[in-house]
Amino acid sequence: MSRQSTADVRPRARRTVRTRNGRFSRRLDLRIGVILLLAGAVTVGLAVYGMTLGAVEVPFTEIPATLIGQGSGQYDLVVLELRLPRVAVAVLAGIALGVSGALFQSFARNPLVSPDIIGVNTGASLVAVALLTIYSSHVAFLPLGAFAGAIAAAAVVYLNARSGHVSPYRLVLIGIGVDVFCRAGVSYLLVQGESMRAQAAVRWMVGSLDQATPTSMWFLTTVVVFLVPAAMLLRRPMEAMTLGEDTAKALGADPKRMRMATLAVGVMLAASVVAICGPISFVAFIAPHMARRLANAPGTAILPVAGAVGALLVLVSDLLVQHVIPASLPLGVITPLLGGPYFLYLLRRVGRQEAG
Q1: Residue 108 class from Cβ within 10 Å (0-12 exposed, 13-18 middle, 19+ buried)?
Q2: For a Cys-Cys bond, which of 5, 20, 159, 175 suits 25, CB 3.0-4.6 Å?
Q3: Residues 331, 62: contact at Cβ < 8 Å?
């Protein structure tokens, strides 16, 4: 299976519109713009609808009024303190995971790469499980520990993959090795820990939004506000990198710095989500694939669409967990169930094309 065929993208002539802001102008892809507008509208609609659901039913019209401080006041606690943080964390986590996955796949030039498989999630899990099972007296530091574990695992991968320059191929292989090592550590801690603590650790490892709070909402808001624009700024230098190092240098890009910046932004986005929600699987992997199909564009052009798809995927999954599925399941159980069939569809489509 070729890398490009897996993405199943056939770029066509793009319809663009030129925008001007003072002395600066740029072209905007109309198809991507329309997709982002539609995805944004659907996300806002689902988010508002989701905040009406629950043990305390809130009228639909009360949600916008409460959010801008002009509601009746009787729903302020339910909406602002309980439901808004969870919905906002779902959207922000989806954006961060989608953009992170697109960055990793563009960097490695491999659509099968994501933060899930190069040790970022399992590095966070190793520290988190240790705090939940062996060092439970320090469980208050779990988000910080998970974030530090993800960053440490990524740093180990980067330092070992660096051989003159960071090779995407070496990065993936070493990342898989670090992932296996961390999984072994997690398994050991689960076996050694008490059964109740081990059960709590397993639930955390699946990923959920049960611990979403106003503090976590503002933390992820800060991360997305700063790092997603940083990812967008990396788009053109990353595209230059695909033409080869000599060509990239001729176009003014520094390959070494660009690799470090791309990995740093991608890892920080993924690590921030893991610290708050646990390792929500499959979103960073499948969101860029869906974005390529929707935008019909390769490379870094799909970064904003990947973020939008990720937001919808996580938000819909959480609404299903809370209000549709009768069993109390963590969010991370649902995301593969939603994204898995689509990925199987892509594989079957590629298989038919190669057979033909």
Answers
A1: buried
A2: 20
A3: no
